[in-house]
Specification:
The chain has one helix and 68 strands. By secondary structure, the protein is mainly beta.
Length: 723
């Protein structure tokens, strides 16, 4: 008879002693990429205020260099790599040189552009010095003037684009000792030259201004303006086929065969603004934007430099495919970032600040009284109470705080400041399309909401019996069982009536934060409550491991461990032990934790005011017998016998071929023995540990841990050596 699948949970408490990088990973907002240059497989990216990033386009790894390393400034406006693979970085404070080991500094002036000649000489531009060159360790001025950009063609002719006042702009050609002014009496004169590119096929100079893009035919000495939109452009590059690529505030354009094509690589115009363009040796176009680094090969765009779109993360959800979705809100836009295949690679605009995912994997979000549905395209639904005013007009349901989707029924809670009768707990029927109204002006459907009760609601959760537990700002906690409302407040012994977050654990206990009333000059703080249906239990800084802080989020993982997000970090409560993770003792990227989400493998995600953090210290490992079909997404490990003396066999299953390691750690997190470090095939493998360390010495009795890594997957196991 086939043995059943055995699933066991490893509480990896030892992992806190291991290298923090193996347990915590954090992501921050995308850097604005101001400049791009290439060196073999490395894409050098100069950023605004963040330094320069060396991105390996083959491995996807990246390294950051800043003023701590030797940069003049962390705002890198231009980059060039010379024939000796020496990197030159123009910054807003001066020029830095990096030969791979040593940094040097030149010219304590803002550098706007640099270029390398065919003979290997470096030329650059500053506001004060104009055109300069470097000879060894000395620099000298070549041509005074207010120039914005520099181009060196294949004949080593230098082209300079001016940045003068209206009516005085021109292109300066320097060919050895001969100088030629171009376009000073044409329409070139009216706008500064933003960028230039050389077309070797047509022997033309292409340049962009705030009023469009132009060409200068070198052979005929004529300036031509294509009959296209007279809009502002900032960057231009020409690929190996002679196709012209242009960037501006609206994104990336391709000019081919007399037609201008749009490439919307980022769905938000704000984050899609093109700050830099370059073409590598393979003809791939690289684009620096406010939303990070992109490349486009033909019509296929790809995002690099795994980053989220804004540091402030409002909510996190995980869909059926395991994709992580995070919402952000800033002064200009609401965006959603998606983490898939180990990179943040989707930026959706026009959605709400708070997210939800239904059983079909459809993403829902909400902002104000509007719901947004995303399943490849965005649909919008505004929720109202119909005809509640004396004149028969509708009323908004207020600012939606959370939703729960049950088939075609969506339940929601909302509040409005100042409070009005629109706030409350309500539901809508998405299948009742006969009562939809389409608002052409606003571009959304208007759907009638059905109120259960009116109050300023903050959050809610649903238990296994479909009871709704609703938190409010001023009225305490409510339970709704489908027919009856029950209220719990200060009258029932709560320390306050302002409920901040609500969660139901795996035993149907209700957990919620209660905000304490306090004098205006004091910092707000919360108590944590649990309710088993009969008794309320209060946890405070005085009787538990909680900090005196305000609670912003709650989650329960697959081990029934509670995670409490506060403005002093995140607290883990396993039933007896309290552990606080903050920026000082862990890889958490900010102490204000707005949102928490749990993956199927019990990886915990935290959305903060300063980025996203992932914690893998609670991951679940699954063990199966030999007759079980192995899911291709799992990495499996187990030891037998366990307990053991003097040796044990460690069996593990790899879902795919790849470089693999198997390492033994002691309870202090120190490496004891490396058993495997090689490329292995997919399938089942075994390794025997003889109870000795890497030096051959027998280890003492106690608890040991195995850590298996295959590619980017990791699994852990626990073993006990007995005397």
């Amino acid at each position: 008879m086939k043995k059943c699948i055995v699933v066991f949970v490893l509480f990896i408490f030892f992992s806190e002693f291991l290298n923090a990088e193996s347990l915590w990973t954090s992501w921050h907002k995308s850097p604005i990429v101001l400049s791009i240059a290439f060196e073999d497989d490395i894409v050098w990216c100069g950023t605004e205020n963040e330094g320069v990033i060396a991105y390996n386009k083959t491995t996807g790894t990246q390294r950051l260099y800043t003023t701590d390393d030797g940069l003049f400034s962390n705002t890198v406006t231009c980059i060039a790599v010379d024939h000796n693979e020496v990197k030159w970085f123009g910054t807003n404070n001066g020029l830095s040189r990096f030969d791979g080991s040593t940094w040097d500094k030149f010219i304590s002036q803002p550098v706007s552009d640099i270029a390398i000649s065919n003979t290997g000489a470096l030329f650059g531009l500053t506001t004060l010095a104009g055109l300069f060159t470097i000879d060894g360790s000395e620099w000298s001025t070549v041509k005074k003037g207010n120039f914005n950009c520099i181009l060196i063609d294949e004949k080593d002719t230098i082209w300079l684009g001016s940045k003068e006042s209206m009516g005085n702009n021109y292109i300066l050609r320097i060919d050895g000792t001969e100088e030629t002014v171009i376009g000073k009496d044409t329409f070139i004169q009216y706008n500064p030259i933003e960028d230039m590119a050389y077309d070797s096929i047509g022997n033309k100079i292409w340049y962009v201004t705030s009023k469009g893009f132009y060409t200068y035919n070198i052979d005929s000495d004529t300036v031509i303006k294509p009959d296209l939109h007279t809009v502002s452009y900032q960057r231009i590059v020409i690929d190996h086929n002679g196709t012209v690529w242009i960037g501006n505030d609206d994104g990336l354009k391709e000019y081919r065969d007399g037609t201008l094509y749009d490439h919307q690589i980022v769905t938000s115009p704000y984050y899609g603004k093109v700050w830099s363009l370059n073409c590598d040796n393979n003809g791939i176009i690289w684009i620096g934007t406010r939303g990070g680094l992109y490349s486009i090969d033909g019509s296929i765009a790809e995002r690099h430099l795994s980053c989220i779109y804004s540091d402030e993360v409002m909510s996190i959800v995980i869909d059926n495919e395991g994709k992580i979705w995070c919402s952000h809100s800033d002064d200009s836009s609401t965006l959603v970032s998606c983490f898939y295949r180990n990179i943040w690679n989707v930026g959706l605009a026009g959605l709400g600040e708070f997210l939800c995912v239904d059983k079909n994997g459809t993403i829902w979000s909400h902002r104000g009284s509007t719901l947004f549905k995303y399943n490849g395209a965005v649909s919008k639904y505004n929720i109202v109470y119909e005809g509640v005013f004396d004149d028969g007009s509708d009323q908004s349901v207020g600012d939606i705080q959370n939703i729960y989707i049950d088939g075609t029924i969506i339940w929601g809670v909302s509040y409005t400041i100042p409070m009005d009768s629109g706030s409350g707990f309500w539901w809508i029927d998405m299948s009742d399309t006969d009562n939809y109204k389409y608002d052409d002006k606003q571009g959304y459907y208007v759907i009638p909401g059905h109120a259960i009760f009116k109050a300023d609601c903050t959050d809610f959760a649903v238990d296994s019996a479909k009871n709704f537990w609703i938190g409010t700002i001023y009225n305490g906690l409510y339970k709704y069982d489908g027919t009856t409302l029950t209220r719990y407040s200060e009258a029932e012994g709560l320390s306050g009536n302002s409920i901040s977050s609500v969660e139901v654990d795996r035993n149907d206990n209700v957990w919620f934060g209660v905000l304490h009333p306090r004098p205006r000059e004091e910092k707000s703080f919360s108590s944590l409550y649990s309710f088993n249906g009969i008794t309320f239990t209060e946890y405070t800084a005085e009787n538990s491991g909680l900090e005196k802080a305000q609670i912003y989020s709650l989650a329960c993982d697959h081990n029934n461990t509670k995670w409490i997000g506060t403005d002093a970090g995140v607290v883990r409560f396993g039933g007896e032990t309290w552990t606080t993770f903050n920026t000082q003792n862990s890889g958490l990227c900010d102490n204000k934790v707005n949102a928490i989400a749990v993956e199927k493998n019990n990886t915990i995600w935290f959305g903060t005011d300063n980025g996203v953090s992932r914690y893998t210290g609670e991951m679940i490992t699954t063990s199966v017998d030999e007759n079980t079909t192995i899911p291709q997404s799992l990495l499996l490990i187990r030891s037998y016998p366990n307990h053991f003396n003097p040796s044990t066999t460690i069996g593990f299953t790899l879902p795919e071929a790849g470089s693999s390691t198997l390492i033994i750690y002691n309870i202090a997190g120190q490496k004891v023995r490396g058993l495997v470090a090689e490329s292995m095939t997919a399938g089942r493998h075994t390794a025997v540990w003889d109870g000795k360390d890497d030096s051959g010495a027998p280890v003492s009795a106690g608890i040991y841990f195995t850590r298996l890594t295959c590619g980017r997957r990791t699994a852990t196991g626990k073993m006990v050596m007995v005397k």
